[in-house]
Amino acid sequence: MIEEKIESLGIKLPTPPTPAGSYVPVIKTGNLLFISGQIPMEDGKVIFTGKVSDENLEIAQKSARMCAINIISQIKREVGDLDKVSKIVRLSGFVNSVPDFTQQPKIINHASDLLFEIFGEKGKHSRIAVGVASLPLNSMTEIDAIVEITD
């Protein structure tokens, strides 16, 4: 059902990105998945880079959306069936911002909105959205997640 929803939105889940450092992409403990920070990677390349400002806000929103798609890809790789998601619990969103940029929530909203659109009520979550001085590989955004699943 969830994968049909994703397909109806015209989204093709990419192969989940491999870690850019010494960590694992997902840790499962009990019925929770802790998904490491996902950056906007596609085919092994960061597709949205640079500092976020008022001038490139819409591009940064696409970057956050791509992070959410990569989170979903990591969930699928870990549990196989996206219908096992019982709740998106929390997102932590980081925006590679210029110092005076204050609209980080408008950026991360695009990840939050996509998760709600795909998972419905199960996609509603708690969240932070903060600006940072830099991100790995000069990515515009990075988002991690905590997801509850059923077995």
TrEMBL record:
Transmembrane segments: none
Signal peptide segment: none
InterPro entries linked: Endoribo_LPSP/chorism_mut-like, RutC-like_sf
Span of domain Endoribonuclease L-PSP/chorismate mutase-like: 5-143
PANTHER family (alphabetical): ENDORIBONUCLEASE L-PSP_CHORISMATE MUTASE-LIKE DOMAIN-CONTAINING PROTEIN, ENDORIBONUCLEASE-RELATED
Name this protein carries in UniProt: Endoribonuclease L-PSP
Natural source organism: Nitrosopumilus adriaticus
Taxonomic lineage from the root: Archaea, Nitrososphaerota, Nitrososphaeria, Nitrosopumilales, Nitrosopumilaceae
